[in-house]
Specification:
With about 625 residues, this protein is mostly helical. The protein folds into 4 domains: about 160 residues; about 110 residues, no CATH class; about 140 residues, Tetratricopeptide repeat domain (Serine Threonine Protein Phosphatase 5, Tetratricopeptide repeat, Alpha Horseshoe), CATH 1.25.40; about 60 residues, Tetratricopeptide repeat domain (Serine Threonine Protein Phosphatase 5, Tetratricopeptide repeat, Alpha Horseshoe). Helix content is about 80%, strand content about 0%. The protein is built from 29 helices and no strands. Helix 3 packs parallel to helix 5, helix 11 runs antiparallel to helix 12 and helix 17 runs antiparallel to helix 18. The longest helix is centred in the first third of the chain and has 142 residues. The chain is elongated and about 200 Å long. InterPro entries: STI1/HOP_DP, TF_Kbox, TPR-like_helical_dom_sf, TPR_rpt. GO terms for molecular function: DNA-binding transcription factor activity; Hsp90 protein binding. This is Hsc70/Hsp90-organizing protein, putative. It comes from Eimeria tenella (Coccidian parasite). Keywords: Repeat, TPR repeat.
Protein backbone atom coordinates (compact mmCIF):
# COMPACT_ATOMS: atom_id res chain seq x y z
CA UNK A 1 0.00 0.00 0.00
CA UNK A 2 1.07 3.50 -0.74
CA UNK A 3 1.66 5.57 2.39
CA UNK A 4 -0.72 8.49 2.65
CA UNK A 5 0.60 11.93 3.35
CA UNK A 6 0.30 13.11 6.92
CA UNK A 7 -2.48 15.58 7.26
CA UNK A 8 -2.00 18.21 9.85
CA UNK A 9 -5.57 19.43 9.81
CA UNK A 10 -7.40 17.96 12.84
CA UNK A 11 -10.79 18.16 11.17
CA UNK A 12 -9.73 16.07 8.16
CA UNK A 13 -8.07 13.50 10.43
CA UNK A 14 -11.30 13.03 12.31
CA UNK A 15 -13.23 12.55 9.04
CA UNK A 16 -10.74 9.90 7.74
CA UNK A 17 -10.83 7.92 10.98
CA UNK A 18 -14.60 7.95 11.00
CA UNK A 19 -14.76 6.66 7.40
CA UNK A 20 -12.33 3.84 8.20
CA UNK A 21 -14.36 2.80 11.19
CA UNK A 22 -17.44 2.76 9.02
CA UNK A 23 -15.69 0.55 6.48
CA UNK A 24 -14.63 -1.88 9.20
CA UNK A 25 -18.12 -1.95 10.60
CA UNK A 26 -19.52 -2.59 7.15
CA UNK A 27 -17.03 -5.35 6.54
CA UNK A 28 -17.88 -6.96 9.81
CA UNK A 29 -21.55 -6.72 9.09
CA UNK A 30 -21.31 -8.24 5.59
CA UNK A 31 -22.57 -11.84 5.92
CA UNK A 32 -21.88 -12.85 2.41
CA UNK A 33 -18.00 -12.57 2.67
CA UNK A 34 -16.15 -15.48 3.92
CA UNK A 35 -14.49 -15.39 7.31
CA UNK A 36 -11.00 -16.01 6.01
CA UNK A 37 -11.22 -13.16 3.67
CA UNK A 38 -12.40 -10.86 6.35
CA UNK A 39 -9.71 -12.00 8.71
CA UNK A 40 -7.01 -11.49 6.11
CA UNK A 41 -8.27 -8.07 5.38
CA UNK A 42 -8.33 -7.21 9.02
CA UNK A 43 -4.79 -8.47 9.48
CA UNK A 44 -3.69 -6.46 6.52
CA UNK A 45 -5.38 -3.37 7.84
CA UNK A 46 -4.02 -3.60 11.43
CA UNK A 47 -0.50 -2.25 10.64
CA UNK A 48 -2.05 0.55 8.77
CA UNK A 49 -4.35 1.30 11.63
CA UNK A 50 -1.49 1.26 14.08
CA UNK A 51 0.53 3.57 11.90
CA UNK A 52 -2.50 5.70 11.53
CA UNK A 53 -2.95 5.84 15.26
CA UNK A 54 0.67 6.75 15.75
CA UNK A 55 0.29 9.45 13.16
CA UNK A 56 -2.81 10.70 14.92
CA UNK A 57 -1.03 10.75 18.27
CA UNK A 58 1.91 12.58 16.76
CA UNK A 59 -0.42 15.04 15.13
CA UNK A 60 -2.23 15.54 18.43
CA UNK A 61 1.07 16.19 20.19
CA UNK A 62 2.02 18.64 17.47
CA UNK A 63 -1.36 20.29 17.85
CA UNK A 64 -0.88 20.55 21.59
CA UNK A 65 2.56 22.10 21.10
CA UNK A 66 1.18 24.51 18.57
CA UNK A 67 -1.64 25.40 20.96
CA UNK A 68 0.90 26.04 23.70
CA UNK A 69 2.91 28.19 21.35
CA UNK A 70 -0.23 30.04 20.39
CA UNK A 71 -1.08 30.60 24.06
CA UNK A 72 2.43 31.91 24.71
CA UNK A 73 2.18 34.19 21.71
CA UNK A 74 -1.21 35.39 22.94
CA UNK A 75 0.27 36.11 26.36
CA UNK A 76 3.12 37.98 24.75
CA UNK A 77 0.63 39.92 22.68
CA UNK A 78 -1.37 40.77 25.80
CA UNK A 79 1.78 41.93 27.58
CA UNK A 80 2.75 44.02 24.59
CA UNK A 81 -0.76 45.50 24.51
CA UNK A 82 -0.52 46.35 28.22
CA UNK A 83 2.85 47.96 27.64
CA UNK A 84 1.39 49.93 24.77
CA UNK A 85 -1.48 51.08 26.98
CA UNK A 86 0.93 52.14 29.71
CA UNK A 87 3.03 54.01 27.18
CA UNK A 88 -0.11 55.72 25.87
CA UNK A 89 -1.08 56.74 29.42
CA UNK A 90 2.39 58.07 30.02
CA UNK A 91 2.19 60.02 26.80
CA UNK A 92 -1.17 61.47 27.87
CA UNK A 93 0.25 62.47 31.26
CA UNK A 94 3.23 64.08 29.59
CA UNK A 95 0.87 65.97 27.28
CA UNK A 96 -1.11 67.18 30.29
CA UNK A 97 2.05 68.27 32.04
CA UNK A 98 3.10 70.11 28.93
CA UNK A 99 -0.26 71.87 28.81
CA UNK A 100 0.02 72.83 32.50
CA UNK A 101 3.52 74.11 31.96
CA UNK A 102 2.31 76.15 29.01
CA UNK A 103 -0.49 77.60 31.16
CA UNK A 104 1.98 78.40 33.92
CA UNK A 105 4.24 80.07 31.41
CA UNK A 106 1.31 82.15 30.17
CA UNK A 107 0.41 83.13 33.74
CA UNK A 108 4.01 84.05 34.48
CA UNK A 109 4.09 86.14 31.35
CA UNK A 110 0.91 87.91 32.46
CA UNK A 111 2.37 88.47 35.92
CA UNK A 112 5.52 89.84 34.38
CA UNK A 113 3.44 92.20 32.28
CA UNK A 114 1.49 93.30 35.36
CA UNK A 115 4.71 93.80 37.31
CA UNK A 116 6.11 95.83 34.47
CA UNK A 117 2.97 97.97 34.50
CA UNK A 118 3.25 98.35 38.27
CA UNK A 119 6.88 99.31 37.93
CA UNK A 120 5.94 101.90 35.36
CA UNK A 121 3.23 103.24 37.67
CA UNK A 122 5.66 103.30 40.59
CA UNK A 123 8.19 105.12 38.46
CA UNK A 124 5.52 107.67 37.58
CA UNK A 125 4.60 107.99 41.25
CA UNK A 126 8.24 108.42 42.16
CA UNK A 127 8.56 111.13 39.55
CA UNK A 128 5.47 112.83 40.94
CA UNK A 129 6.80 112.50 44.47
CA UNK A 130 10.12 113.93 43.38
CA UNK A 131 8.29 116.86 41.85
CA UNK A 132 6.29 117.27 45.04
CA UNK A 133 9.48 117.11 47.09
CA UNK A 134 11.01 119.77 44.90
CA UNK A 135 7.94 121.93 45.39
CA UNK A 136 8.05 121.30 49.13
CA UNK A 137 11.72 122.19 49.20
CA UNK A 138 10.91 125.43 47.44
CA UNK A 139 8.12 126.07 49.92
CA UNK A 140 10.49 125.27 52.77
CA UNK A 141 13.00 127.72 51.39
CA UNK A 142 10.28 130.36 51.17
CA UNK A 143 9.16 129.52 54.70
CA UNK A 144 12.75 129.74 55.92
CA UNK A 145 13.03 133.15 54.35
CA UNK A 146 9.77 134.16 56.01
CA UNK A 147 11.03 132.75 59.31
CA UNK A 148 14.21 134.75 58.97
CA UNK A 149 12.15 137.86 58.37
CA UNK A 150 9.96 137.01 61.35
CA UNK A 151 13.05 136.43 63.47
CA UNK A 152 14.33 139.83 62.49
CA UNK A 153 10.98 141.32 63.42
CA UNK A 154 11.07 139.41 66.71
CA UNK A 155 14.53 140.73 67.42
CA UNK A 156 13.31 144.24 66.77
CA UNK A 157 10.31 143.65 69.01
CA UNK A 158 12.58 142.22 71.70
CA UNK A 159 14.73 145.31 71.50
CA UNK A 160 11.63 147.45 71.88
CA UNK A 161 10.53 145.33 74.81
CA UNK A 162 13.92 145.72 76.40
CA UNK A 163 13.67 149.47 76.03
CA UNK A 164 10.19 149.44 77.54
CA UNK A 165 11.41 147.23 80.38
CA UNK A 166 14.22 149.65 81.03
CA UNK A 167 11.71 152.47 81.20
CA UNK A 168 9.56 150.44 83.58
CA UNK A 169 12.59 149.70 85.71
CA UNK A 170 13.35 153.37 85.90
CA UNK A 171 9.77 154.09 86.88
CA UNK A 172 9.83 151.30 89.44
CA UNK A 173 13.05 152.64 90.89
CA UNK A 174 11.46 156.04 91.20
CA UNK A 175 8.40 154.50 92.82
CA UNK A 176 10.42 152.36 95.22
CA UNK A 177 12.38 155.36 96.36
CA UNK A 178 9.41 156.31 98.47
CA UNK A 179 7.82 158.62 95.96
CA UNK A 180 4.16 158.17 96.88
CA UNK A 181 3.42 161.09 94.59
CA UNK A 182 4.27 158.89 91.62
CA UNK A 183 1.74 156.27 92.71
CA UNK A 184 -0.84 159.00 93.24
CA UNK A 185 -0.29 160.46 89.77
CA UNK A 186 -0.23 157.01 88.20
CA UNK A 187 -3.46 156.00 89.97
CA UNK A 188 -5.15 159.25 88.94
CA UNK A 189 -4.14 158.79 85.31
CA UNK A 190 -5.40 155.21 85.29
CA UNK A 191 -8.66 156.32 86.94
CA UNK A 192 -9.22 158.97 84.26
CA UNK A 193 -8.59 156.32 81.58
CA UNK A 194 -11.23 154.06 83.16
CA UNK A 195 -8.71 151.44 84.32
CA UNK A 196 -10.20 151.11 87.77
CA UNK A 197 -8.43 147.87 88.66
CA UNK A 198 -4.99 149.23 87.80
CA UNK A 199 -5.76 152.48 89.59
CA UNK A 200 -6.78 150.59 92.71
CA UNK A 201 -3.53 148.60 92.64
CA UNK A 202 -1.45 151.78 92.22
CA UNK A 203 -3.13 153.51 95.16
CA UNK A 204 -2.75 150.34 97.26
CA UNK A 205 0.99 150.12 96.51
CA UNK A 206 1.38 153.77 97.46
CA UNK A 207 -0.42 153.16 100.74
CA UNK A 208 1.94 150.27 101.46
CA UNK A 209 4.77 152.79 101.40
CA UNK A 210 2.89 155.49 103.30
CA UNK A 211 -0.32 154.18 104.96
CA UNK A 212 -1.23 157.60 106.41
CA UNK A 213 -1.23 159.48 103.09
CA UNK A 214 -4.68 161.12 102.86
CA UNK A 215 -4.44 161.74 99.12
CA UNK A 216 -3.86 158.06 98.41
CA UNK A 217 -6.65 157.06 100.81
CA UNK A 218 -9.07 159.46 99.15
CA UNK A 219 -8.12 158.29 95.66
CA UNK A 220 -8.52 154.63 96.62
CA UNK A 221 -11.94 155.34 98.14
CA UNK A 222 -13.10 157.15 94.99
CA UNK A 223 -11.90 154.29 92.81
CA UNK A 224 -13.72 151.71 94.94
CA UNK A 225 -16.91 153.76 94.96
CA UNK A 226 -16.72 154.27 91.20
CA UNK A 227 -16.10 150.58 90.69
CA UNK A 228 -19.04 149.64 92.87
CA UNK A 229 -21.36 152.12 91.17
CA UNK A 230 -20.17 150.99 87.75
CA UNK A 231 -20.76 147.35 88.67
CA UNK A 232 -24.20 148.21 90.03
CA UNK A 233 -25.06 150.08 86.82
CA UNK A 234 -23.91 147.18 84.64
CA UNK A 235 -25.78 144.74 86.87
CA UNK A 236 -29.05 146.71 86.61
CA UNK A 237 -28.67 146.94 82.84
CA UNK A 238 -28.02 143.17 82.60
CA UNK A 239 -31.05 142.39 84.79
CA UNK A 240 -33.28 144.68 82.71
CA UNK A 241 -32.12 142.99 79.50
CA UNK A 242 -32.72 139.53 80.97
CA UNK A 243 -36.25 140.46 82.08
CA UNK A 244 -37.12 141.71 78.59
CA UNK A 245 -35.80 138.53 76.97
CA UNK A 246 -37.27 136.00 79.40
CA UNK A 247 -41.03 136.33 80.12
CA UNK A 248 -40.68 133.91 83.01
CA UNK A 249 -38.28 136.27 84.82
CA UNK A 250 -40.52 139.21 83.92
CA UNK A 251 -43.40 137.40 85.57
CA UNK A 252 -41.28 136.96 88.71
CA UNK A 253 -40.50 140.71 88.77
CA UNK A 254 -44.20 141.53 88.42
CA UNK A 255 -44.97 139.29 91.37
CA UNK A 256 -42.09 140.69 93.49
CA UNK A 257 -41.08 144.38 92.93
CA UNK A 258 -37.72 143.79 94.68
CA UNK A 259 -36.83 140.84 92.42
CA UNK A 260 -34.81 142.87 89.90
CA UNK A 261 -32.94 144.80 92.62
CA UNK A 262 -32.07 141.56 94.41
CA UNK A 263 -30.72 140.04 91.20
CA UNK A 264 -28.67 143.16 90.43
CA UNK A 265 -27.21 143.20 93.94
CA UNK A 266 -26.25 139.52 93.79
CA UNK A 267 -24.75 139.90 90.31
CA UNK A 268 -22.64 142.85 91.46
CA UNK A 269 -21.54 140.81 94.47
CA UNK A 270 -20.46 137.90 92.27
CA UNK A 271 -18.57 140.23 89.91
CA UNK A 272 -16.72 141.77 92.85
CA UNK A 273 -16.05 138.42 94.51
CA UNK A 274 -16.38 135.39 92.16
CA UNK A 275 -15.88 132.98 95.04
CA UNK A 276 -19.32 133.96 96.37
CA UNK A 277 -21.05 132.41 93.33
CA UNK A 278 -21.46 129.05 95.07
CA UNK A 279 -23.27 130.66 98.02
CA UNK A 280 -25.50 132.69 95.70
CA UNK A 281 -26.53 129.62 93.65
CA UNK A 282 -27.21 127.67 96.86
CA UNK A 283 -30.09 129.95 97.87
CA UNK A 284 -33.42 128.15 98.42
CA UNK A 285 -35.40 130.57 96.23
CA UNK A 286 -35.79 128.93 92.81
CA UNK A 287 -36.54 132.30 91.18
CA UNK A 288 -33.18 133.69 92.30
CA UNK A 289 -31.32 130.64 90.99
CA UNK A 290 -33.08 130.83 87.62
CA UNK A 291 -32.39 134.56 87.32
CA UNK A 292 -28.70 134.15 88.15
CA UNK A 293 -28.46 131.26 85.70
CA UNK A 294 -29.69 133.54 82.89
CA UNK A 295 -27.46 136.46 83.95
CA UNK A 296 -24.37 134.24 84.01
CA UNK A 297 -24.97 133.02 80.45
CA UNK A 298 -27.07 129.93 81.11
CA UNK A 299 -30.48 129.03 79.71
CA UNK A 300 -33.83 128.22 81.22
CA UNK A 301 -35.22 124.79 80.41
CA UNK A 302 -38.24 124.81 78.16
CA UNK A 303 -41.27 123.46 79.95
CA UNK A 304 -41.84 120.50 77.70
CA UNK A 305 -42.00 117.87 80.42
CA UNK A 306 -45.24 117.51 82.38
CA UNK A 307 -43.22 118.42 85.44
CA UNK A 308 -42.77 121.92 84.05
CA UNK A 309 -45.74 122.17 81.72
CA UNK A 310 -47.60 124.59 83.98
CA UNK A 311 -45.75 127.59 82.49
CA UNK A 312 -46.03 128.65 78.85
CA UNK A 313 -43.20 128.25 76.35
CA UNK A 314 -40.85 131.12 75.55
CA UNK A 315 -42.63 132.18 72.39
CA UNK A 316 -46.07 131.74 73.92
CA UNK A 317 -45.04 133.77 76.95
CA UNK A 318 -43.70 136.54 74.72
CA UNK A 319 -46.97 136.61 72.82
CA UNK A 320 -48.87 136.63 76.09
CA UNK A 321 -46.83 139.61 77.26
CA UNK A 322 -47.87 141.55 74.15
CA UNK A 323 -51.50 140.40 73.95
CA UNK A 324 -54.13 140.13 76.67
CA UNK A 325 -54.69 136.54 77.89
CA UNK A 326 -57.52 134.64 76.25
CA UNK A 327 -60.52 133.84 78.35
CA UNK A 328 -60.92 130.12 78.95
CA UNK A 329 -64.23 128.34 78.79
CA UNK A 330 -65.34 126.34 81.85
CA UNK A 331 -64.36 123.13 80.06
CA UNK A 332 -60.92 124.51 79.26
CA UNK A 333 -60.45 125.62 82.86
CA UNK A 334 -61.36 122.14 84.07
CA UNK A 335 -58.98 120.65 81.50
CA UNK A 336 -56.15 122.88 82.76
CA UNK A 337 -56.88 121.76 86.31
CA UNK A 338 -56.68 118.11 85.24
CA UNK A 339 -53.44 118.83 83.39
CA UNK A 340 -51.91 120.35 86.54
CA UNK A 341 -53.10 117.34 88.50
CA UNK A 342 -51.41 115.08 85.96
CA UNK A 343 -48.21 117.14 86.21
CA UNK A 344 -48.11 116.67 89.98
CA UNK A 345 -48.71 112.94 89.64
CA UNK A 346 -45.95 112.80 87.03
CA UNK A 347 -43.54 114.44 89.46
CA UNK A 348 -44.43 111.76 92.00
CA UNK A 349 -43.87 109.10 89.29
CA UNK A 350 -47.45 107.90 89.62
CA UNK A 351 -47.70 107.26 85.92
CA UNK A 352 -51.00 105.36 85.74
CA UNK A 353 -52.82 108.09 87.71
CA UNK A 354 -51.15 110.77 85.57
CA UNK A 355 -52.40 109.07 82.38
CA UNK A 356 -55.96 109.07 83.73
CA UNK A 357 -55.72 112.78 84.58
CA UNK A 358 -54.42 113.62 81.08
CA UNK A 359 -57.17 111.51 79.49
CA UNK A 360 -59.76 113.53 81.41
CA UNK A 361 -58.10 116.76 80.28
CA UNK A 362 -58.15 115.56 76.65
CA UNK A 363 -61.83 114.65 76.95
CA UNK A 364 -62.61 118.18 78.21
CA UNK A 365 -60.43 119.97 75.63
CA UNK A 366 -59.53 117.64 72.72
CA UNK A 367 -58.03 120.54 70.69
CA UNK A 368 -55.11 121.09 73.08
CA UNK A 369 -52.19 119.10 71.64
CA UNK A 370 -49.98 119.68 74.68
CA UNK A 371 -52.15 117.25 76.67
CA UNK A 372 -51.31 114.52 74.15
CA UNK A 373 -47.66 115.56 74.30
CA UNK A 374 -47.67 115.29 78.11
CA UNK A 375 -49.31 111.88 77.88
CA UNK A 376 -46.57 110.79 75.46
CA UNK A 377 -44.00 111.95 78.02
CA UNK A 378 -45.54 109.65 80.63
CA UNK A 379 -45.38 106.69 78.25
CA UNK A 380 -41.73 107.49 77.47
CA UNK A 381 -40.82 107.51 81.17
CA UNK A 382 -42.62 104.18 81.55
CA UNK A 383 -40.51 102.77 78.72
CA UNK A 384 -43.58 102.28 76.50
CA UNK A 385 -42.07 103.89 73.41
CA UNK A 386 -44.69 102.52 71.02
CA UNK A 387 -47.58 104.28 72.78
CA UNK A 388 -45.43 107.40 73.18
CA UNK A 389 -45.02 107.64 69.40
CA UNK A 390 -48.71 106.89 68.84
CA UNK A 391 -49.75 109.83 71.05
CA UNK A 392 -47.36 112.12 69.18
CA UNK A 393 -48.73 110.95 65.83
CA UNK A 394 -52.27 111.65 67.05
CA UNK A 395 -51.23 115.18 67.93
CA UNK A 396 -49.61 115.73 64.52
CA UNK A 397 -52.69 114.45 62.71
CA UNK A 398 -54.81 117.11 64.45
CA UNK A 399 -52.38 120.02 64.01
CA UNK A 400 -54.08 121.46 60.92
CA UNK A 401 -57.56 120.74 62.22
CA UNK A 402 -57.01 122.72 65.42
CA UNK A 403 -54.59 125.25 63.82
CA UNK A 404 -51.91 124.48 66.39
CA UNK A 405 -49.07 126.93 67.07
CA UNK A 406 -45.70 126.18 65.52
CA UNK A 407 -44.12 126.05 68.98
CA UNK A 408 -46.56 123.35 70.10
CA UNK A 409 -45.89 121.26 66.98
CA UNK A 410 -42.16 121.69 67.55
CA UNK A 411 -42.54 120.28 71.07
CA UNK A 412 -44.33 117.22 69.70
CA UNK A 413 -41.48 116.62 67.25
CA UNK A 414 -39.01 117.06 70.12
CA UNK A 415 -40.87 114.41 72.09
CA UNK A 416 -40.68 111.98 69.17
CA UNK A 417 -36.98 112.74 68.74
CA UNK A 418 -36.30 112.07 72.42
CA UNK A 419 -38.24 108.80 72.18
CA UNK A 420 -36.21 107.66 69.16
CA UNK A 421 -32.97 108.73 70.86
CA UNK A 422 -33.76 106.57 73.89
CA UNK A 423 -34.21 103.63 71.55
CA UNK A 424 -30.85 104.52 69.94
CA UNK A 425 -32.58 105.15 66.59
CA UNK A 426 -30.47 108.23 66.02
CA UNK A 427 -31.30 108.68 62.32
CA UNK A 428 -35.01 109.07 63.11
CA UNK A 429 -34.22 111.26 66.11
CA UNK A 430 -32.18 113.61 63.90
CA UNK A 431 -35.02 113.73 61.38
CA UNK A 432 -37.53 114.68 64.10
CA UNK A 433 -35.28 117.41 65.52
CA UNK A 434 -34.79 118.87 62.05
CA UNK A 435 -38.56 118.94 61.56
CA UNK A 436 -38.88 120.64 64.94
CA UNK A 437 -36.41 123.33 63.87
CA UNK A 438 -38.49 123.95 60.75
CA UNK A 439 -41.44 124.69 63.04
CA UNK A 440 -39.58 126.68 65.72
CA UNK A 441 -35.84 127.32 65.63
CA UNK A 442 -34.82 127.35 69.31
CA UNK A 443 -31.38 127.11 70.89
CA UNK A 444 -32.44 124.17 73.04
CA UNK A 445 -33.55 122.14 70.02
CA UNK A 446 -30.32 122.94 68.18
CA UNK A 447 -28.35 121.78 71.21
CA UNK A 448 -30.39 118.57 71.40
CA UNK A 449 -29.82 117.93 67.69
CA UNK A 450 -26.08 118.42 68.11
CA UNK A 451 -26.06 116.01 71.06
CA UNK A 452 -27.93 113.33 69.09
CA UNK A 453 -25.53 113.73 66.19
CA UNK A 454 -22.64 113.32 68.62
CA UNK A 455 -24.23 110.17 70.05
CA UNK A 456 -24.77 108.83 66.53
CA UNK A 457 -21.14 109.44 65.60
CA UNK A 458 -20.06 107.72 68.81
CA UNK A 459 -22.32 104.74 68.09
CA UNK A 460 -21.04 104.57 64.50
CA UNK A 461 -17.45 104.59 65.73
CA UNK A 462 -18.19 101.85 68.25
CA UNK A 463 -19.95 99.78 65.58
CA UNK A 464 -16.98 100.29 63.26
CA UNK A 465 -14.58 98.82 65.82
CA UNK A 466 -13.22 95.44 64.70
CA UNK A 467 -9.88 94.35 66.24
CA UNK A 468 -9.42 91.60 63.64
CA UNK A 469 -9.68 94.01 60.71
CA UNK A 470 -7.50 96.45 62.63
CA UNK A 471 -4.80 93.79 62.77
CA UNK A 472 -5.13 93.22 59.01
CA UNK A 473 -4.67 96.93 58.27
CA UNK A 474 -1.76 97.05 60.71
CA UNK A 475 0.02 94.22 58.84
CA UNK A 476 -0.59 95.98 55.52
CA UNK A 477 0.81 99.17 56.99
CA UNK A 478 3.89 97.31 58.19
CA UNK A 479 4.47 95.98 54.66
CA UNK A 480 4.17 99.46 53.17
CA UNK A 481 6.52 100.78 55.86
CA UNK A 482 9.13 98.11 55.01
CA UNK A 483 8.86 99.10 51.34
CA UNK A 484 9.38 102.80 52.27
CA UNK A 485 5.85 103.66 51.12
CA UNK A 486 5.16 105.84 54.16
CA UNK A 487 2.00 107.65 52.91
CA UNK A 488 0.30 104.31 52.22
CA UNK A 489 1.51 102.98 55.58
CA UNK A 490 -0.03 105.98 57.34
CA UNK A 491 -3.36 105.39 55.56
CA UNK A 492 -3.42 101.78 56.72
CA UNK A 493 -2.57 102.81 60.28
CA UNK A 494 -5.34 105.43 60.14
CA UNK A 495 -7.87 102.76 59.22
CA UNK A 496 -6.48 100.40 61.87
CA UNK A 497 -6.93 103.07 64.56
CA UNK A 498 -10.52 103.63 63.47
CA UNK A 499 -11.07 99.89 63.78
CA UNK A 500 -9.41 99.65 67.22
CA UNK A 501 -8.82 103.06 68.85
CA UNK A 502 -7.71 101.48 72.16
CA UNK A 503 -4.57 99.80 70.78
CA UNK A 504 -1.50 101.81 71.80
CA UNK A 505 0.74 100.00 69.29
CA UNK A 506 -1.25 101.38 66.36
CA UNK A 507 -0.61 104.97 67.45
CA UNK A 508 3.08 104.17 67.89
CA UNK A 509 3.26 102.68 64.38
CA UNK A 510 1.54 105.71 62.88
CA UNK A 511 3.95 107.96 64.78
CA UNK A 512 6.82 106.11 63.08
CA UNK A 513 5.26 106.69 59.64
CA UNK A 514 4.61 110.37 60.43
CA UNK A 515 8.22 110.74 61.55
CA UNK A 516 9.37 109.46 58.15
CA UNK A 517 7.07 112.04 56.55
CA UNK A 518 8.66 114.81 58.71
CA UNK A 519 5.35 115.50 60.47
CA UNK A 520 6.96 115.68 63.90
CA UNK A 521 4.17 117.45 65.87
CA UNK A 522 1.54 114.97 64.68
CA UNK A 523 3.85 112.05 65.43
CA UNK A 524 4.49 113.43 68.92
CA UNK A 525 0.75 113.66 69.52
CA UNK A 526 0.34 110.00 68.53
CA UNK A 527 3.10 108.99 70.96
CA UNK A 528 1.36 110.84 73.77
CA UNK A 529 -1.92 109.11 72.90
CA UNK A 530 -0.19 105.72 72.93
CA UNK A 531 1.33 106.47 76.34
CA UNK A 532 -2.02 107.58 77.72
CA UNK A 533 -3.37 104.15 76.72
CA UNK A 534 -0.31 102.23 77.92
CA UNK A 535 2.12 104.20 80.14
CA UNK A 536 4.50 101.21 80.24
CA UNK A 537 4.97 101.15 76.45
CA UNK A 538 8.75 101.57 76.20
CA UNK A 539 8.86 101.92 72.41
CA UNK A 540 6.45 104.87 72.61
CA UNK A 541 8.72 106.56 75.17
CA UNK A 542 11.67 105.96 72.86
CA UNK A 543 9.88 107.46 69.86
CA UNK A 544 8.66 110.39 71.94
CA UNK A 545 12.23 111.12 73.01
CA UNK A 546 13.44 110.88 69.42
CA UNK A 547 10.79 113.35 68.27
CA UNK A 548 11.70 115.82 71.01
CA UNK A 549 15.33 115.46 69.92
CA UNK A 550 14.43 116.14 66.29
CA UNK A 551 12.47 119.20 67.45
CA UNK A 552 15.60 120.19 69.43
CA UNK A 553 13.70 120.02 72.71
CA UNK A 554 16.56 118.32 74.49
CA UNK A 555 15.30 118.46 78.12
CA UNK A 556 12.01 116.86 77.12
CA UNK A 557 13.84 114.28 75.02
CA UNK A 558 16.07 113.36 77.96
CA UNK A 559 13.04 113.09 80.25
CA UNK A 560 11.25 110.74 77.81
CA UNK A 561 14.28 108.46 77.44
CA UNK A 562 14.76 108.31 81.21
CA UNK A 563 11.12 107.34 81.74
CA UNK A 564 11.52 104.55 79.20
CA UNK A 565 14.66 103.32 80.99
CA UNK A 566 12.83 103.24 84.31
CA UNK A 567 10.44 100.73 82.78
CA UNK A 568 13.08 98.75 80.86
CA UNK A 569 16.69 99.54 81.87
CA UNK A 570 17.98 97.37 79.00
CA UNK A 571 16.16 99.29 76.25
CA UNK A 572 18.72 99.86 73.51
CA UNK A 573 16.74 102.67 71.85
CA UNK A 574 16.35 104.63 75.08
CA UNK A 575 20.01 104.16 76.05
CA UNK A 576 21.28 105.32 72.65
CA UNK A 577 18.81 108.20 72.57
CA UNK A 578 19.84 109.37 76.04
CA UNK A 579 23.53 109.30 75.12
CA UNK A 580 22.81 111.20 71.91
CA UNK A 581 21.01 113.94 73.84
CA UNK A 582 23.82 114.20 76.39
CA UNK A 583 26.44 114.49 73.63
CA UNK A 584 24.44 117.21 71.89
CA UNK A 585 24.00 119.23 75.08
CA UNK A 586 27.71 118.91 75.91
CA UNK A 587 28.60 120.02 72.40
CA UNK A 588 26.46 123.13 72.75
CA UNK A 589 27.95 123.91 76.14
CA UNK A 590 31.49 123.60 74.80
CA UNK A 591 30.93 125.66 71.67
CA UNK A 592 28.53 128.13 73.30
CA UNK A 593 26.36 128.14 70.16
CA UNK A 594 22.65 128.97 70.32
CA UNK A 595 20.41 127.09 67.91
CA UNK A 596 17.77 129.45 66.49
CA UNK A 597 15.30 126.63 65.89
CA UNK A 598 15.80 125.39 69.44
CA UNK A 599 15.24 128.93 70.71
CA UNK A 600 12.03 129.20 68.66
CA UNK A 601 10.69 125.93 70.08
CA UNK A 602 11.62 127.03 73.58
CA UNK A 603 9.85 130.37 73.14
CA UNK A 604 6.73 128.49 71.93
CA UNK A 605 6.66 126.37 75.11
CA UNK A 606 3.61 127.45 77.23
CA UNK A 607 5.60 127.10 80.46
CA UNK A 608 8.38 129.35 79.19
CA UNK A 609 5.83 131.86 77.88
CA UNK A 610 4.20 131.96 81.31
CA UNK A 611 7.59 132.55 82.94
CA UNK A 612 8.42 135.33 80.49
CA UNK A 613 5.11 137.08 81.26
CA UNK A 614 6.28 137.56 84.84
CA UNK A 615 7.75 141.11 85.04
CA UNK A 616 10.25 140.10 87.72
CA UNK A 617 11.54 137.22 85.62
CA UNK A 618 11.84 139.56 82.64
CA UNK A 619 14.02 141.87 84.72
CA UNK A 620 16.16 138.94 85.89
CA UNK A 621 16.62 137.68 82.33
CA UNK A 622 17.50 141.12 81.06
CA UNK A 623 20.07 141.59 83.82
CA UNK A 624 21.51 138.16 83.02
CA UNK A 625 21.88 139.13 79.37
CA UNK A 626 23.65 142.34 80.30
CA UNK A 627 25.83 140.67 82.95
CA UNK A 628 26.18 136.85 82.50
CA UNK A 629 28.28 136.66 85.67
CA UNK A 630 25.08 137.01 87.69
CA UNK A 631 24.04 133.50 86.66
CA UNK A 632 27.18 132.04 88.22
CA UNK A 633 26.43 133.85 91.46
Amino acid sequence: MRSQPICTNPQTLRIDAASEFKNLAAAAAAPEQPLVKRTRQQLQQQPQLQQRRKQLQQEQQQLQQEQRQLQQEQRQLQQEQQQLQQEQQQLQQEQRQLQQEQQQLQQEQQQLQQEQQQLQQEQQQLQQEQQQLQQEQRQLQQEQQQLQQEQQQLQQEQQQLQQEQQQLQQEQQQLHQGSTRGYSRKGLAEFNLGRLGEAERSYSKGLELEPSNEGLQKGLKEVQQSGASLRDMHALWAVSTALNRHPKLLKYSQQDPNYSKTLAKLLSQVQANPSSLRLVMAQPDVRIREGMTVLLGGTLEEEEEPAAAAAASGAAAAAAAQQPPKELTPEQQQAEAKKKEGNELYKQRKFEEALKAYDEAIALDPNQLLYLNNKAAVYMEMGDFENCLKECEKALEKRYEVKADYEVVAKVYNRMAACFARQKEFEKAIEMYEKSLCESNTRQTRAALAEVKRLKEKADREAYVDPQKAEEHKLKGNEFFKNNDFPSAKKEYDEAILRNPKDAKLYSNRAAALTKLFEYPSALKDCETALSLDPSFVKAWSRKGTLHFLLKEYPKALEAFEKGLKIDPSSKECLEGKMQVIRKVQQQQQTGEVDEEQMRHAMADPEIQQILRDPQMSIVLQNAQENPALLKE
